[in-house]
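Standup notes
- DV: blocked on the single-chain target, sequence here:
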Amino acid sequence: MTKVLTVDDVEIEFEKQNPNHSCKWCIYIRLRKKDKEQTVLMIRTNNKPYTRFTFHSGILVNRSTETLKDILANSMNDIKELREIENNVNDEKN
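- DV (later): unblocked, structure below
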């Protein structure tokens, strides 16, 4: 039986491992509800993970570029943040 959870935020992290590590990939599932955050699942695998972005119209579930764009918008914010941090570190070094 699948467990159904209702949460405020979900984070899925795909982490490529160092070649010396015992597996090639780690996938983390983190959940946040109110002020509590928890990593609920860590998956290790040697196979590259794949993702599927779908939209449930009420009748059918289809693959969806709109869903992909919505999710990637959050990822792009992470990339912008990382670039800002990198720039700040570089500025401090100079």
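- Follow-up: The chain has one helix and five strands.
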